[in-house]
From TrEMBL, chains A, B:
The gene is panC. The active site is at H33 (proton donor). This is Pantothenate synthetase. Keywords: ATP-binding, Cytoplasm, Ligase, Nucleotide-binding, Pantothenate biosynthesis. Catalyzes the condensation of pantoate with beta-alanine in an ATP-dependent reaction via a pantoyl-adenylate intermediate. ATP binds at residues 26-33, 143-146, 172, 180-183. Beta-alanine binds at Q57. It comes from Nitrosomonas halophila. Pathway: Cofactor biosynthesis; (R)-pantothenate biosynthesis; (R)-pantothenate from (R)-pantoate and beta-alanine: step 1/1. It is found in: Cytoplasm.
Amino acid sequence: MEIITDIMSLRVRLQRESSIAFVPTMGNLHAGHLSLVQIARQHAACTVVSIFVNRLQFAPHEDFDRYPRTQENDCRLLKESGADIVFLPDEKTLYPVSQTFQVSLPVMADTLEGACRPGFFRGVATVVLKLFNIVQPQIAVFGQKDFQQLQIIRGMVEQFNLPIEILAGETVRADDGLALSSRNSYLEPKQRQEASQLAWVLQQVKQRVEAGENNFARLEQWAAQRLHERGWKVDYVAVCHQQTLSRATIDDRQYAILGAAWLGQTRLIDNLLFSRP
Amino acid sequence: MEIITDIMSLRVRLQRESSIAFVPTMGNLHAGHLSLVQIARQHAACTVVSIFVNRLQFAPHEDFDRYPRTQENDCRLLKESGADIVFLPDEKTLYPVSQTFQVSLPVMADTLEGACRPGFFRGVATVVLKLFNIVQPQIAVFGQKDFQQLQIIRGMVEQFNLPIEILAGETVRADDGLALSSRNSYLEPKQRQEASQLAWVLQQVKQRVEAGENNFARLEQWAAQRLHERGWKVDYVAVCHQQTLSRATIDDRQYAILGAAWLGQTRLIDNLLFSRP
């Protein structure tokens, strides 16, 4: 496995590859990321993983500085997973000048995560576009855990005519159901025990929708109340149309249930996708 | 020369090319465009020219509907010029859905043309990014006549890490100095005679700056007044720093003098670039 830090060297190195699959990450890798690497390996001759904590997608008050950076361990895990190249740019490499050209997004980016974290998706889309142009993969793999992000990247690829196929990796969960996330490492032991409640609540909402419940607002309220009572600060629990991420109606077939909530200083997100006949 | 109208066919056709140079146009081609084709041909094995009148860069009150469309003649000229492929998408091909992902631009895009035509450069940058992703050229050629556009495209390529080299073609002028433009065809004979005054006035400003004149505001005023007296409606005459297009200072070395003004219903733009030791 090669570790490459500058753009020119990466471009030269990738010229000799017939097909490239790309997994962009912010590091602090867990089994979720590694499952994306496996998908990548199945779809191209060369798997490139980038590790870059992207300041552009953090608001000033957010956890950019304390975001876990575990580069050495990440590289060890990637080597074991069979990644071919790790792209490890520093900030001056990706942002040599102030990033004044950015991606502006549809209203879908203003709901849910976008409403809670203004500018977040603009920062994500901009760095992903840059990384796509640097790596020029045929395939890129994103985790379904960040489902709204996945849908925004899909939309960007389609509307900007990027010659890239986006693949989604299913959310990898701990035994108790908690979706794996780099931010789980912030949780204290008692919080970690409580954390699986987010997935459990979304699962309850899903089962009730599948069973024919049509009052989605009441379900959302129930879920938020349940988490609130257990000490969570809830940003949202939302029953949405899977494609548009606007609030679902009873005529929809494909649903996404998305949730975001705080345990102490740690913000967790999760989602479930399903269809109703 | 091949004429290709759909994206998939173009991608398949271009796969066998070792190097591609691209000239995006809105058609109604003149010697200025054809000079860009010559530059393209010198830099790659395959020259692709696109013709697409891009609704996204026209404001509702602007001349999208009456913009001259001369496809047959354009294709004839391109064949004579040695272009290899003409990409002729229709609106549904480039905008199958509402273009909700767009390029957001730095403040440089809000001055001069951007101030007179809000949204213009956003529309230009968005369609150019799409075309770049469709054609995937190594080289793209733009006319220096649209100098602010050229600088914005250069900035976008740099900041989005597009693997494309941007080349500029010098402004081609009629014998009397008028910069060639598709919009010149709107001019009535008397207006056409007057039109060269825009270039003449910019030339005067340039000569005075070169001669050491440092009161740029006074020069701008003089130029605008001169055009106004001859019946023009002046949008701006501006002495600018060539890289940033902010107003020039006497410490600058490289200048751009840019002008935009109306003759009747026709808006003309022009510019001159030069250095002062």
